[in-house]
Amino acid sequence: MGSFNMQGLFSSKKKLAALDIGASSLKLAEVDRTSKGYALQSYHQLPLPKGIVNEGVLEDPQALTAKIKELVKLSKVKRRNVVTSLSGNMVIS
Fold first, then answer.
1. Contacts of residue 37, Cβ cutoff 8 Å, sequence gap at least 6
2. Which of 18, 27, 83, 93 is spaced 20 to 30 Å from 40 by Cα?
3. What gap in Å lies between CA 54 and CA 25, rounded to an integer?
């Protein structure tokens, strides 16, 4: 198997958005790559109603999709490059 290049994860793009999907909230951050590293440009958070994610299990994908769209609209993020991480015993993407 080939080696994994962490630098390739971010490609050559200098601007990206990072999305965190938690059990109780969504978080969206805009990050710019500068000569000194990465810099946070904006941060937005939106609470998730109970029942969308329950004990790490996605119970209502349509409601989660609607909340992600709401967060993107509220934050006015225009970036197309989005990174996210998924964790837990059961991961749904």
1. none
2. 93
3. 12
